[in-house]
Amino acid sequence: MSVASNINLPKLRLSPKKVISPQIYDFLRKHITETNIKPGTLLSENSLSEHFHVSRQPVREALMRLSYEGLLSVLPQRGSVVERISVGDLVQTVFVRTAIEKECALNITKLDAKTKRNCLAAIEKVIDQQRRIKHDEDLRSNYFRLDDLFHEKICALSGAPMAWNTIQSIKGQMDRIRFLTFDSVSPTEVITHEHEQIFEYLKAGDLDHCLEFLSYHLSQIIITHKSIIKKYSDWFTPESLSQITVDDDKEKRAKSVKIDKSEIDETASAVNQDEKNEKNEPSTTELADE
Fold it and tell me: I need a surface site. Which of 119, 183, 267, 279 has the fewest CB within 10 A?
């Protein structure tokens, strides 16, 4: 059943043993972050309640939770509209997420030997699953589930479930970019290799290199989004597109300055060479004396 003018959602089998609202939230979040529902799509509370065969209350709760995470905007009397991706919010998310995950990784020094061994085994198991993942039509969804699981296991080193729950609640923008850049910009082999590096440093107790590489790994999305923002311009906010234009202009000016400097250096080098040649050439008087 259509819940908006331009989308059709699949059916959702709700479990009677679980609270309804979180199930609807998980379902809608998955379809938004996996880019099945595009920005600008209007989600109707009434239509969604009919689609899921539930009252409006659990639907309203799910939509409000998604709006808190920045994935939706609630429009009075109209419904909820899927938000565009904000690069400004993305940068802040990377900062907060990196701070949390680095602190969680550091907590490994406080674990007893058995807990540490179990945590490392859990992380290694996820990496092994990533290596052996089946490359089929579900690759993208399955791989990112394991990608999330890897970072969830890093956060588990803290012993504080709130760490990963906080990251999960703020990374919706990141998830959409991850799906848009999947494989073409961020190959699974590269991501898995980076996970292996983080794990090896962690296992060896080399926390300085572990934290450094973890920061690098998490910040890559700030770079990779630039390669797809023009192709998917309708997915990003006008402010994000304007910033890309500004960045492009800066890069062009930097290249221009570099070229100008290169030309100046070449000219200066040629002048210096001419001066050297003039010093080495015998004067007219010297030639006459000879």
Answer: 279
Q: To which residue do tokens 């699949």 refer?
A: 10
Rounded Cα distance between 122 and 112, Å, is 16
Quote the pTM value.
0.81
Tens of pLDDT, residue by residue, the chain (290 residues): 344 445 788 999 999 999 999 999 999 999 999 999 999 999 999 999 999 999 999 999 999 999 999 999 988 878 899 999 999 999 999 999 999 999 999 999 999 999 999 999 999 999 999 999 988 888 999 999 999 999 999 999 999 999 999 999 999 999 999 999 987 777 899 999 999 999 999 999 999 999 999 999 999 999 988 888 988 999 999 999 998 766 655 555 656 665 555 666 666 666 666 666 666 655 555 545 55
Cα 222 to chain centroid distance, Å, stands at: 7
Report which of 73, 59, 72 is spatially closest to residue 14, judged by C-alpha positions.
59
DSSP secondary-structure letter at 17? Answer: T
* The dihedral sign for the CA sequence 15, 18, 21, 25: negative
Across the beta sheet with 72-75, the strand order is 42-43, 79-82, 72-75
Please, what are the domains in the chain?
A: 2-82 (1.10.10.10), 87-234 (1.20.120.530)
What single-letter amino acid sits at 180?
A: L
Contact, 135 vs 127, CB < 8 A? no
E-strand stretches of the chain: 2-4, 7-8, 42-43, 72-75, 79-82
Q: What are phi and psi of 73, to 5 degrees?
A: -120, 130
Cα(82)–Cα(36) distance, integer angstroms = 11
Cβ contacts of residue 82 below 8 Å, gap of 6+? 32, 37, 38, 39, 40, 41, 43, 71, 72
